[in-house]
Design goal:
alpha+beta, eight-stranded mixed sheet, five-stranded antiparallel sheet, 20 strands, 28% helix, Speckle-type POZ protein, SKP1/BTB/POZ_sf, MATH/TRAF_dom
């Protein structure tokens, strides 16, 4: 007899995610969780910010793990599960699995999500306020849900910002490899104090300047550093910056070169060397490990079907199910889709070479700065209520309008993504550009890499171009041997 399905959903939010200090092979572990419907088994999520092993470099690895706890549960315990990273744009990454877990064993996906997708190309959608959300849904049994548990946990990566002034007296008399060192102490207990040393590199012709920053605790990782030169008026000239957060292979910041040489500074002595003293402003951000990790909320629910079964023999009671009622109500986006489909109260037309597409001025203006300029300034579109789009195909305009009204893209493929990326760039629809470029980068291959490189370069999209160049460098033999590359 089928007793229905027991579910558990575990939502794990990781704050200050970009400051994860982990090297390849190092994992971040969620708070442990357990529910009665899973017979007291204990679980956790293991996330590897720089991949689990060399073959996963450039990826985030994600696993569901059964913890090594003493319990009366059989050695092997089978569940179905779904791991996902929710995204604001709705394009969530997901992995589905079914496995029999022994204690201490985890299952999941080694190449779950590309690091540069999370940290660069889709940062706004995947890392709002530098917080990564990971969702794990587990279930046993089949049929209707008889019991559901929702658990919310939070882990915060600690960071400490330290800004200080490094004053170098008698700068013009500084000898090669002579160190000018100061000590900076943090007021936070157990957190880093640091040593800041400036020196000239020996045998450098114009006097290359290096700044060495060393925290007192080896577990405190310098993640970002920016140095600026102070002039006599108090103004700042940026002269060096490093940020290791985006590195697939973590490179510890130890020595930071100053962009200006000693000779260049001496040439501007009146601006930078009052009484032969050089002043450097240093801004550092340290990752200080996990400072908080805890389950914050647990909700035990019995779905409507289970409640009905339990109360079959009891007196019927009126139950108000707000969630069910809300799910049946159309959202604002649903209503906009209806307006778009029915072409109600349209007041402008987008016209291609072969077809006209009715639309609404106010919505076009809200979604595109270019359309707003056309329809609100003294341009012909404002008076004619016609926007000529003769460089886009009918299907592309249809998909463009669907996206403007619903934030959705249907049946996206390579060809439609390239055309919609062009449209997004032309009409300054940044969200559309990001979604299309992300799709193209995820689906690029050695034969299409040259086409994608030209597209990114044509539209001066530096992040897009860098992602394509990274792919080409990793697959240079196949790319450079392709016929498509020869046609560039």
């Amino acid at each position: 007899m089928n007793d229905g399905r027991a579910e558990c959903t575990f939502l794990w939010r990781i704050e200050n995610y970009s400051y994860c200090w982990h090297k390849n092979g190092d994992g971040l572990v969620s708070p442990e969780f357990t529910v009665d419907s899973f017979e007291g088994t204990v679980w956790a999520i293991n996330l590897y910010p720089r991949g689990d092993g060399q073959d996963a470099e450039g990826y985030i690895s994600l696993y569901l793990t059964r913890c090594k706890k003493i319990d009366d549960v059989p050695v092997d315990f089978s569940v179905k599960y779904e791991l996902s990273v929710p995204a604001a744009d709705g394009l969530s990454s997901r992995f589905d699995g079914e496995a029999t877990f022994a204690k201490g064993i985890g299952y999941g996906c080694r190449k779950f999500l590309k690091r540069d997708e999370a940290l660069l190309h889709r940062e706004a959608d995947l890392l709002p306020q530098d917080t990564l959300s990971v969702r794990c849904k587990m279930w046993r049994g089949e049929g209707s849900v008889r019991e559901a548990t929702e658990i919310t946990a939070r882990t915060r990566i600690g960071i400490e910002e330290i800004s200080y002034l490094h004053l170098i007296e008698s700068f013009s008399k500084l000898e090669p490899d002579e160190e000018k060192t100061i000590q900076i102490k943090s007021p936070a207990k157990r957190h880093c104090s640091l040593t800041s040393s400036l020196y000239l590199v020996e045998d450098s012709w114009e006097g290359t300047i290096m700044l060495e920053i060393t925290p007192s605790d080896e577990n405190q990782i310098l993640a970002k550093c920016k140095i600026s030169l102070l002039d006599t008026s108090g103004g700042k000239t940026e002269c060096g910056e490093l940020d290791n957060r985006l590195d697939d292979i973590r490179k510890d910041i130890k020595n930071l070169p100053v962009d200006l040489t000693m000779q260049a500074i001496l040439n501007e002595e009146s601006d930078y060397l009052p009484e032969d003293n050089l002043s450097l402003s240093c801004e550092c951000v340290f990752s200080t490990g996990v400072e908080y990790s805890k389950i914050e909320k647990t909700a035990f629910e019995k779905p409507f079907v289970a409640v009905s079964r339990i109360s079959n023999n009891a007196q019927s009671k009126s139950i108000y199910h707000a969630a069910q009622k809300l799910s049946a109500c159309p959202s604002a986006m649903d209503d906009l889709k209806v307006i778009y489909d029915n072409q109600s109260l349209t007041d402008v037309v987008l016209k291609t070479k072969t077809k006209a597409f009715p639309a609404h001025k106010v919505w076009l203006c809200a979604r595109s700065p270019v359309f707003k300029t056309m329809l609100s300034s003294d341009m012909r579109e404002k008076n004619s209520n016609i926007i000529l789009i003769d460089d886009l195909e009918d299907d592309t305009v249809q998909q463009l309008l669907l996206f403007l009204y619903t934030d959705q893209l249907e049946d996206l493929c390579w060809d439609s993504a390239t055309k919609l990326y062009y449209a997004g760039d032309k009409y300054q629809i940044e969200r559309l550009k990001v979604i299309c470029s992300s799709f193209l980068v995820d689906n690029v291959n050695p034969s299409s890499a040259s086409e994608l490189l030209v597209l990114a370069d044509t539209h001066s999209d530096s992040d897009f171009k860098e992602a394509v160049e990274d792919f080409i460098l990793k697959h240079e033999e196949q790319v450079f041997a392709s016929k498509e590359w020869d046609r560039i």
